[in-house]
Amino acid sequence: MKICAAQTKPFKGDIAKNIQNHKKLIEIAISNKADIIIFPELSLTGYEPELAEELLISQIEDSILNDFQIISDKSKIIIGVGMPTKNEKGICISMIVFQPNKKRQIYSKQYLHPGEEKYFVSGQNILPIEQKNKKIAFAICYETSIFEHSETAHKNGADIYIASVLNSVKGVDKDIKRISEIAKQYAMISLMSNLTGKSGEYDCAGKSSIWNRQGVLMGQLNGKDEGIIIIDTENQEIIKKYL
């Protein structure tokens, strides 16, 4: 199985431009036979809390995202993109998950970073999804720092743990250490998909990474360029491609 983390430089609040950029990276992933590609936190809008209300989607089947379902169905690839969504309590930081010929799912950030509650509400995590006899669990940014979150993923049988994040230049090394520890503690292949460039008030760090089940760093993108990083779970081969 080939698992892919994407690294993107978001256009502030421009969903259409970000979709086109995502599609370029998805095509590279498909050409390298990836089974799944996951994008960073709020990848389709950028991390712009004050704009979330005007950028959100209120229905999971919103037509603005149809291209991702079409690509998923045609190329048999799972795609996870970051987008603000709305539930009965308010706005969530979410990942929309597209699976071939299946109903779309929403993974919403359950554990908010201090300060995010001004704009967002806690959402609901979906259970790990299954692909090629592997269970894949997700996390969105701050959730990686909550012990119960990774423990729950492990208890739910996850083999693979993918964190969709915004990590700043100042904070990235702490998160790299933390996800490495998660990988080692629970013997889960782990990935981090991060933004690069500027988003909101943050200088994003890039360095999207992959760790093996022993917590050893297997590969990492640089700090500035958009691209993808893939691990083949059968032979541990790492592929890195930049736009």
TrEMBL record:
GO molecular function: N-carbamoylputrescine amidase activity
InterPro entries, per database record: Aliph_Amidase/BUP (IPR050345), C-N_Hydrolase (IPR003010), C-N_Hydrolase_sf (IPR036526)
Keywords associated with the record: Hydrolase
Domain CN hydrolase: from-to ranges: 1-235
A biological process from GO: putrescine biosynthetic process from arginine
Name of the protein in its database record: Carbon-nitrogen hydrolase family protein
Species this protein is from: Flavobacterium cheongpyeongense
